[in-house]
Amino acid sequence: MSAIADLSAAELEALRNEVRGKYEAFRARGLKLDMTRGKPAPEQLDLSNGMLALPGNADHFTESGEDARNYGGLQGLAEARALFLPVLGAPPDRIVVGNNSSLALMHDCIVWALLKGVPGSPRPWAKEQEIAFICPSPGYDRHFAICEEYGVRMLPAPMTGQGPDMDVVEALASDPAVKGMWCVPKYSNPTGEIYSDQTVRRLASMRAGAPDFRLFWDNAYAVHHLTERRHEILNILEECERAGNPDRAFVFASTSKITLAGAGVAFFASSAANVRWLLARAGKRTIGPDKLNQLRHVRFLRDEAGLYRHMDAHRALIAPKFAAVAEALDRHLARTGVARWTRPDGGYFISVDAAQGTAKRVVELAKEAGLALTPAGATWPHGQDPHDSTLRLAPTFPSLEEVRAASEGIALCILLAAIDKQCA
Ligand code: PLP
């Protein structure tokens, strides 16, 4: 197919009729498909069924002889911290293991920063006239929802394919009102991009106007590869230390998309000062985390090799789904000039840039055809995509057959919306 912008009026009209016919045929199938849920499929959760019987009846003592059934152990088991050390890039004494949900840890860090400040804060963030966060966009909607909830102004920064545009980020960070920045440095949600070494170094070393500026380094997809290549990124904690900003990064991760999404363990890693700060706050909130779940994870995954074996099994289940989406988009949209889409080497999403001003229409067309897509704009601060172009596709949860059918429908909706706009 040739670029629709090059077609004559008659050719465009003919193509419109053809694509509308295909769309109507798709709609007539009366399917019910959902590509909105960035969560593991049941078969992925089944990979961890062995955990349900762990740590087992009489297995509740930790390596140091602690009884994991009891209160205490605020920082998390030493063996759990050691197991995830390669993922977090910090020595065990600078890792904290929490309960399920790293998002909860991020939320708590923001709330505690607002109420108490962080190491280096002249005053609690809530006592400042106004505070702002840099939000690489498109990004993770739940990060933006936390900012919205607590009145943190959001400053979008465009993505480049190698992380956020650092010229924009550096200019924004020089403002003392800017207290932090969201980063998903590997297989970013939703663009799948990986921060380059240069991006990581610039983030670690840039001048920040606020003395207590923090990178919220959400490494949610650290080991979630979709190809045999296990991409690595620079260690942000080491880079910050080297640049003379040792307290700059709060690192987060979890096993939500490794073991069980609703019953994983979450991690925080940072400088000694930040870890002391977090533990001082956390110690008021709880007498200790669920250490049996930590023990369960250690018994199940065992070591780094066990972790990678387990992630390979996830990859075998979900890589074909990502390939099915790419195949349908290629077949219907290649060379039409109406869309660009990502081919991520990891993570949970494919991001599509549809023709400007058509994303909302694509989502409407999809809905009319029984296909649920993430609302247009959801990946932008306040749900507002200035170009009305980004679509986030989440292929992990539906079955491969459903992903194939949905991708066909999505491609047709993207094409039809673009042709309709061109004709208007
Ligand atoms: N961070 C990112 C970038 C995510 O995409 C997600 C889930 O989709 C989360 C965090 C949620 O993590 P958790 O389950 O550990 O709260």
Automatic annotation (TrEMBL):
Molecular function, one GO term: transaminase activity
Q: Which domain of life is it from?
A: Bacteria
Question: InterPro entries under this entry?
Answer: AspAT_Ic, PyrdxlP-dep_Trfase, PyrdxlP-dep_Trfase_major, PyrdxlP-dep_Trfase_small
Entry keywords, A to Z: Aminotransferase, Transferase
- Where, if anywhere, are coiled coils annotated? none
Entry annotated with the keyword DNA repair: no
Q: What is this protein called?
A: Aminotransferase class I/II-fold pyridoxal phosphate-dependent enzyme
